[in-house]
Each structure stands twice: as structure tokens, then as C-alpha cells.
Amino acid sequence: MTENSIPTQEAALVVDNVIKRFNVAAEPWWRRLAGRRKATNGQAANGHDAPHKLKARRGKELVTAVADVSFSVYRREIFGVLGPNGSGKSTLIRLLSTLLLPDEGTITVFGLDVERDEMAVKRLINRVSVEAAFFKKLSPKENLLYGARLYGVSGKEADRKAREILGRLGLRESSYTSPMEDMSRGMQQKVAIARAFLTQPVLLLLDEPTTGLDPRSKLEVQSFVNELRDTHDATIVITTHDMNEADALCDRIAILDDGKIVALDTPAGLKRRIRHNGHEPTLEEVFMALTGKELVEKDDVTDFEPEKVLS
Ligand SMILES: Nc1ncnc2c1ncn2[C@@H]1O[C@H](COP(=O)(O)OP(=O)(O)O)[C@@H](O)[C@H]1O
Ligand SMILES: [Mg+2]
To answer: 130 pLDDT band (50/70/90 cuts)?
Structure first.
């Protein structure tokens, strides 16, 4: 049990002292000399050494992406992981979905260990990320039916479900049968979410599902996420760097900075921490006060390359 858990509620997910490090190519000596370090969130380099460096392999540098993180998520909760680019959100999601194994610590999903009971955990979870891979020449319908077959859902049932979900997400009927490569990123993201819900994931992991979407699609995805929790009895972990989204959607929010949780509370609780002169602080101000940094909104996702993804 971790300090953030409330024993009276059923835990869907328990993350206990998890650490994940990566070996990355060391910076060239001339850049180190110049004191210019690669900034992780697009801001100017500050000349400080990264805080988490241990012994790395030769010519490599050890980067701690997730640095001793502990938290629990309760059943039917929408749990937000909020942090700037490079703060470790995707690494955390990959650890929760068994795509990566923790270097230290344990993760359990409904009491099952991600390492020991990997297959059983896989059956309970589903991950949606911006890198969702599709067959680009195939339509959403074909992609979804293919996905359904992999999961043992019948074609007819999958077709019915897929149409229903995509309809609710505002996907035009004609788009359902045209190639994925002709669709906007927002549309593709909706299809990825629909695919995750062809099966009945008990724990849904959404890695920045609304990043790069237009405001309207953002709202559609957000209300869909809310609906899924209500109608599917799902527990949802969602990462975002959008303060308003976290505020509107999440029951609790963990603020991640440099691989560490700097705060974990309800949106209201977070705001209460920084009350000044009667004016209610925004989450933006909370983040600033907790980390001393601005949370950079990166709405035009430059690193998303559909041609690379849609293979
Ligand atoms: N596969 C990997 N190999 C090496 N470094 C990685 C890898 N994945 C993530 N990192 C590093 O870990 C840190 C956290 O990255 P990530 O989890 O992608 O953050 P976020 O999703 O919040 O942007 C970054 O410094 C990133 O460069
Ligand atoms: Mg990420």
C-alpha cells in the first residue's frame, strides 16, 4: 500500500515505487562544455545537469524517465497524469500496459502483477496512444473488423459496435469506408478509441488522446471518455498536458515533472493548495507553483508523422 491509497476503496491499479531508466546516447563533449543541455519541453536549456543520472553503459547516459512513482487508481475512476513533454507520461503508460517492465518496484492491475501475470493483465487493459498503428490503405471499418477478429469478437457485432461508437464521436458515415490515410489526425484518434472499445477493457489507458485535436473533437473525445466510464464500468488512466482537460475530466490528477509525482489530488484539492487573496488559482498556476515551470501547451504536434505511423 502506498501513501496515496485509500484502503476503503477497491484499487484497480497499484503502482508501487516504480523506477524506469533508459540508456540514451551521451551528449557530445562539445555540447556539454558549452553547457547547452537538451530541453525536454521545448524551453531553452538551463545549463543544469539532469538530476537523475546513474552509471550508464559506455558512451551512454542513463536517463530516469520514471523516478520512484507510487499511486493507486480506484475502480471507475478517471485518473489524470498531467505533465509537460518529456515528464515521463508515455513511459508510465507503457509500464502500466506491460509494454515495458519496471526496473524497480511493482505494478498490479486488479491484484495481478504486470510481470508475473502479464497475459492476464493484457486481457484487462487496452492502450490508446497517438502512435496507434493502422493499415493506412484500409478504411476504419476494415481496420476495426481486423482488430475485432484478433480479439475474437464476431464481425457482425464488431461492425455494429464500431458504427455506434464512431457515430457518437461524430465520424461521418462516408468516412467509415474510406482509407485511413485520407483522414485527419483527430479522426484517426477517434478510430483508435473505438478500436479499444470493441473489447471490454476493464482498465483503459489513454496516452494524450486529445493532443493535436481541434477544440470540437477534443470535447467529443472528452465526453466519450466520460460516457465510457459510466456505461462500461471502466477505469481510465489518461495523460494530458492540457490543464483544462484534466480539470474537466479527472477525478484525481497526478502532476508529473521530471519523472516524479509532485502532487496528487482532486482538481479542487490541487487548486486549494495555492489559494491567494480569494482568487481561485487555475491549474496552470498550481503547476507553476509546484514545479516553478510553465506547462507548455503543444497543440500542433510536430512529431506526429502519420505516414510513419500508418504502416
Ligand atoms: N525508449 C526510450 N529510450 C530512451 N529514452 C526514452 C525512451 N522513452 C522515453 N525516453 C526518455 O524518457 C523521458 C520521458 O519520456 P516520455 O515518457 O515519452 O515523456 P512524455 O510522454 O511525458 O512526453 C524523456 O527524457 C525521453 O527522452
Ligand atoms: Mg508522451
So the answer is: low
**C-alpha cell recorded at residue 267:** 482538481
**pLDDT for 176-204, tens place per residue?**
899 988 888 777 887 888 887 777 778 99
| Residue identifier of the C-alpha nearest atom 26 of ligand 1 | 86
| Radius of gyration from C-alpha coordinates of the chain | 20
67 lines ligand 1 (CB under 6 A): no
Helices 140-150 and 185-196 cross at an angle (nearest 10°) of: 30
Q: Tell me if 16 is assigned to some domain.
A: yes
Euclidean distance between CA atoms 42 and 175, whole angstroms:
35
Q: What are the pLDDT digits (tens) for 150-170?
A: 777 888 888 888 888 788 777
CA dist 86 and 66 (Å) reads 10
**Pairing mode, strands 78-82 and 252-257:** parallel
Asked if residue 85 has its Cβ within 6 Å of ligand 1, the reply is: yes
Interhelix angle 185-196/155-168, nearest 10 degrees? 130
Residue 70 DSSP SS3: strand
Please indicate, yes or no, if residue 76 is contained in any of the structural domains: yes
Does 82 map to a domain? Answer: yes
How many distinct structural domains can be found in the chain?
1
- Residue 217, domain extent: 3-21+64-124+201-310
> From the alpha carbon of 92, which atom of ligand 1 is closest?
17
CATH code (residue 281): 3.40.50.300
- Residue 50 inside a domain? The answer is no
